[in-house]
Specification:
Elements: H1 3-9, H2 12-33, H3 39-64, H4 72-98, H5 100-121
Helix pairs in contact: 2-3, 2-5, 3-4
Length: 122
């Protein structure tokens, strides 16, 4: 690994991807052993995903200079499902909106991993 690839892991998008990979490994392990995940862990994954998405939006907003209200970070944290497509469309047009097709698999990969492992092992 080079220094620049290691730095990429610490960017907001790299942390979101790493978080999604760890959540996928945890969900796959639960599916493999046939156990239910802890409710607290599930809550942590959901809130952690929202927090890391807001972090990425804040980093991206510094480049695009789009920050419509003072507490946009908190607003995005609680309503990211609706606000992320709006933000991507507003800041990047259609090309930015296509970035949503990168985020959706990243956000739903943990549950896809669990489904695949469960299907293959049972």
């Amino acid at each position: 690994m080079t220094i620049s690839s290691i730095r990429g892991l610490f960017s907001p998008l790299g942390r979101l991807a790493t978080f999604s990979l760890l959540a996928g490994a945890q969900q796959a392990a639960y599916a493999y052993y046939g156990t239910e995940g802890s409710g607290l862990v599930e809550l942590g994954w959901r809130w952690g995903t929202a927090l890391l998405l807001v972090w990425w939006v804040q980093a991206d907003a510094q480049k695009t200079k789009y920050w419509p209200c003072y507490e946009y970070g908190a607003f995005m944290f609680f309503g990211w499902v609706l606000l992320l497509p709006h933000y991507l469309l507003r800041t990047g047009g259609i090309r930015g909106f296509l970035l949503l097709f990168f985020f959706l698999p990243l956000l739903y990969a943990p549950w896809a991993f669990a489904f695949a492992v469960s299907y293959l092992t049972h």
